[in-house]
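hi! just following up on the protien thing from before. the input was this:
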Amino acid sequence: MYSTRAVLFGGGGAEDEVPTAGPTTRVREQYTKAKEAMLTHIPEAPWWIVEAVDKKRARLNCITHLLHQIPYQTVHHEAVVLPPRVHNPEYHRGPILKEMYVPVVY
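and the predicted 3d structure came back as:
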């Protein structure tokens, strides 16, 4: 098993701006070199770059990609046999508070 690392890069951030000449340029170059050295991709611990201009899509793409890295196999199992259901005519389910429901967003 290996660990997976991901980096989110969004648009409009400091890394997208064109630096001016001077000390800022040197600092930016040092930062870029350090970032590139950090993103060393090895089979045991790969790095994945996630373009994140749209954060919601970036997260969904990242989740989908990571889930596709897992080698899923069909698990064969015996069929479950349930006993007959016992009905209790004296039991009545009470009302459920609306605060307990998860909001419908999509």
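The radius of gyration is 26 Å.
Residues 1-72 form one domain.
cheers
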